[in-house]
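Friendly challenge for the regulars: who can give me the structure tokens for this chain first? No prize, just bragging rights.
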Amino acid sequence: MSKKEVSMSELFFDLIFVSILSQVNQATEHMTDGILSIESLLKNFMLFLIFVAIWVYRTLLVNRFFNKKWYQYAFVFIDMFLIILLSKAINSDFQSTFTPGVLITIFLFLSIATQYILNYIINKERFDIRLILPYVLSLILASLISIFALFINDSSNVLIFLIAVTVASIVPLFFQKQAKRYPVYFDHLSERLSLFVILMFGEGLIFIASDISVFSLKPVYIVMFVLLVSLFILYTLHYKYTEKEEKRRTGFFTLYIHLFLLYFIDIMFLVMNEEIQQNHFSSFNYHYLYIISFLMYLILLLFNTKHYSNILNSTKVKLNTMVIIICVVLTSILNSFILINIIFIFTIVIVVFINYKDKIKKEFI
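First reply, four minutes later:
Bragging rights claimed.
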């Protein structure tokens, strides 16, 4: 397979997505029951999942079919406008904007399904219809379930809509055989995912910078800046040393690993926004949600590294496991927001040293 570059329109599209994810956090912050109530977590995850489903389908579509034709650009900007409209339906009071939000989601699903069909018709000599059928049928099924949710008058309509979005998100995973026959451009997919993660970190740095005062610089902001830079460096090293040889890959493993990475980064930012002004965590819930999000970020990165490179041998796996266990113990005992973040920083430094010390020494020193 030839190398495929990420287009400017894709970067523009991802920038809009990152901005919208920050709006999801703002909506969650205004939920009266608190971040760890079942209802608020369900709503936060559903909002995230809606945009994830749309992003996954469009990314796989672009990866296999995009060749800079005018109708492809037209659909990019149509979908972008619909996504902006959908972001305006994000509200802490779900029922007040439920109908327009679901209708716009249906239009997006059907738009993407139409694009799969259109691109297949134009490129049918290169692709088998069995490649696009799982995507098209799952989007149509999710649309039908969403329409059904519109006719439910009580709060269970949110649950039915969540089922629709979940169907759209996971159905492609059950058709790996077809996907392997027409593998993704893995270098393009890896670059696209990495740029999305980088944009998320940029959003986090902007958030920290928005509260900094040059007249009263608090230590917590310095610690948070160092933490975000450390998280970014760890991800960059992971990306740099991920093998990207031309193999027949579906891309599903790294795609879904990255989507969970983005979710846990997003949750970390959500807790940071609540707790950055506090010396101690304001609740037991925030404390452990923050720790879990950080640990999941580490573990998911290590899983992806193990899957796509030979960096992690059995010795390094054991050492990383020990470091993670020590981090869990120490952060569970402490309640200081600053101290926990300092432990996170040291944990990242040790993980980097264990996994990348030889490569860093060879290339950067």
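Residues 221-364 form one domain. Residues 149 and 160 are 6 Å apart (CA to CA). Your move, everyone else.
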